Amino acid sequence: MAKRSKGAQKTPVTAPRGVSSLTEAKAWMAGRGITEIECTVPDLAGVARGKIMPASKFFSSPVMNLPLSVFFQTISGEYPDYEGLVDSVVADSDLVMEPDLATLCSVPWAQDPTAQVIHDAYHRDGRPVELAPRQVLRHVISLYEKKGWKPVVAPEIEFYLVEPNTDPDYPLKPPVGRSGRPEIGRQSYSIQAVNEFDALFEDIYDYSEAQGLEIDTLIHEDGAAQMEINLRHGDPLTLADQVFLFKRTIREAALAHKIYATFMAKPIANEPGSAMHIHQSVISAQTGKNIFSDDDGDPTPEFFSFIAGHQKYLPSVMCIMAPYVNSYRRLTRDSMAPINLQWGYDNRTAGLRVPPSTPEARRLENRVPSSDANPYLVIAASLACGYLGLTENLRATDPLEGDAKNLDFDLPRGLLEAVAAFSDSEPLAEVLGHRFVAAYAAVKQAEFETFMRVISPWEREYLLLNV
Q: Which of 30, 9, 210 has the alpha carbon at shortest distance from 108?
């Protein structure tokens, strides 16, 4: 983990994140001289959409209006056919975006004193918008609550630092660090390799502190200039918000140092892919105890049912876990990225890993998701798999003790196959919402059609003169 340099200690910021009322928000912003506020809502890709407005305008009317189409936009800025998804009369009508003041925090990289707050989407009659990623996650959490359970998660996010690249026809390269040389070879867990970018990580720490975001650990991953940030465990919605903000924070800090930070699943051909591992446990709302461990500290039937739910339903949510064509380039044989649904105790070659822990901290690590995924939807989909395993009383396979890297593929190999499995799963539609499933599938299909319009270098290399 990168250390703070001498003299870099910052005075703790009082209440850096979250208030409970507009009155408190006004005092919070006045005390910091805030002049502007970024009103954001995460879309299906996890991109921050919204408006920037003067603080005075926000307090005169804190509700923001955005069109329904904000939740249908593809990553390339296009839209699927709305037929069968929304009523044509209201396809372009405005939604009501209400601020969640618990997410209020500063924008530390802004030139002028600026705040940001995440919004929730509602129809004009007050109903939550079923397509909004925060609402999808909230709904899954509510299903747990009805059973007397409270899910707990801890995400791990991998990303690459790369040299600025303004021409997409050229491959990405590792950036130059403080030594004046780019990183070559594999430097897994290297402190020195992290220290190459000390100034950048100091900014990430400072930006995070200013926003009330908590980094648990920072490590160098396997790839050249590939890093991983781990977050502390907690409430799923709170952690999804933090990943949403962390991604933007890391990108902004990198840009300030003339470096790109990318969360592409497979940005560099001969380097490992980037994952977003999700650690999950479930506690009893009544007792506060982990339902995965019994009074003797042994695993419970509920624990194995939770695992079994992932084994049965992960193939059907792969278009959320791996949302783009590029995502499937990460999932290859003989790599640390999983290709099947095996599980094991402290087995990193399996898609589902049970880390060493005390009985109180017994948990399942879902190693399937890639770092390009929407954190709200990844956590919602993973918890949905576990929920179905619990409610259907499913039974897990025996744990795998050997190497899973070269076993048969159990997961979809491409985006269209994954979307088809997603659309065909009625149990998941019941948990995630039928309207969400239909809309998300349509967006993914539209993105695939956009991809198919591009001729790749591989095609020009091998087909131009040979066929």
A: 210
